[in-house]
Amino acid sequence: MSATLPPAVHDVFQRFVTCELTTIDSRGRPITWPVAPFYRPGDPAIRVTTGLGYPKKANDARRNPKVALLFSDPTGSDLAQPPMVLVQGRAVVDDADLEANRERYSRDTDAKPTGSRESAPAGPLGRRFDWYFTRIYLHVEPERVYIWRAGDPAVEPEVIAAGDAEEAISEPTPQDPSPSVWTGRIGDLGRRYETAVLSTVGRDGFPFAVRVPIGLDKRGRTIRIDSEPAGVELVPGPACVTAHDHHPTLRWMRNFQVRGDLLRQPGGTCIVVPHRVVDGFELPPQGALTRAVSNYAKIRRFRRTAKRERDRRGASG
């Protein structure tokens, strides 16, 4: 299907520094994180990765291969008014040869026209970063693509589909009955981040994601969707609101997500009731010491997870 897409879409796949990957977890809830996409013109699939120390994205995709990739943040792409592009497809998890993946990841990052050029340190020091540089690949071949011209969700998107068999209608996931939560991080929405990625699960069982303007109702402890995307249906149910930003070459990056439920109010507007706030792995625009302190606990956990993943596979460390 990739060969039938407009050249502007191929440029987005190739030049965007990040995209937003949405998987569906074991509870049927969408989970969205920014990742680095890898693509060459003519490739049938878009490649994204996750570190061996945080394999949840791959585990979710293995359990439910229906995923979505949203290209909505052009920072660092050097593209003028690129379209916003949503790719829905099935992910193939590639972790049979971790050493080959580690080498491929180094080549892939070096080959990107924009973004960071990163490689593992040599020798024992490099093994200390095994949790990060050893990668699990996800290969996503597009089955349906939404294209919002000039990145404007208020304009009805062009939809290109592979034309395969129709998908069965999936059963909706029950709403989370727990009370809403409110944290200082949620307060960044509508202030530091005037837009964020809203992800839901469509009636066909595929994740759907789109970047929309957002605001806060502090009294009601909800996140407002200030403008719904044109020409698409937002299905009430489990939802994820993901905010992130990054340096054009990934010298720093920040990201977090709010997991909750999308509800439609009597007047027709949509809100998200937040139930959980999850911080991602971040490199904030601060000094190395501050970064090390803020990530110390996470890195210890990632190292333990990476060792467990290698042991489970029977691979040598």
What features would you describe in this structure?
The structure is a single chain. The chain has helices spanning 7-15, 56-63, 98-111, 123-128, 130-133, 288-313, and strands spanning 19-24, 30-35, 46-51, 66-71, 84-94, 135-148, 158-161, 195-201, 207-217, 222-225, 237-246, 253-264, 270-279. It contains six helices and 13 strands. The protein is α+β, with helices and mostly antiparallel strands and 317 residues long. The N and C termini lie far apart (39 Å). It has one domain (2-313): Electron Transport, Fmn-binding Protein, Chain A (Pnp Oxidase, Chain A), CATH 2.30.110.10. The strands form two sheets. Strands 1, 2, 3, 4, 5, 6 and 7 form a seven-stranded antiparallel sheet that branches. A six-stranded antiparallel beta barrel has the order 8-9-10-13-12-11.
CATH superfamily: Electron Transport, Fmn-binding Protein, Chain A
In total, the number of strands is 13
CATH class: Mainly Beta
Helix content: 10-25%
Structural class: alpha+beta
Q: Whole-Å distance between the termini?
A: 39 Å
Quick check: average pLDDT?
A: 91
CATH fold title: Pnp Oxidase, Chain A
- Share of β-strand residues: 25-35%
> How large is the radius of gyration?
19 Å
How many discrete domains?
1
- Anisotropy-based shape: globular
Topology:
Blueprint: H1 7-15, E1 19-24, E2 30-35, E3 46-51, H2 56-63, E4 66-71, E5 84-94, H3 98-111, H4 123-128, H5 130-133, E6 135-148, E7 158-161, E8 195-201, E9 207-217, E10 222-225, E11 237-246, E12 253-264, E13 270-279, H6 288-313
Antiparallel strand pairs: 1-2, 1-4, 3-6, 4-5, 5-6, 6-7, 8-9, 8-11, 9-10, 10-13, 11-12, 12-13
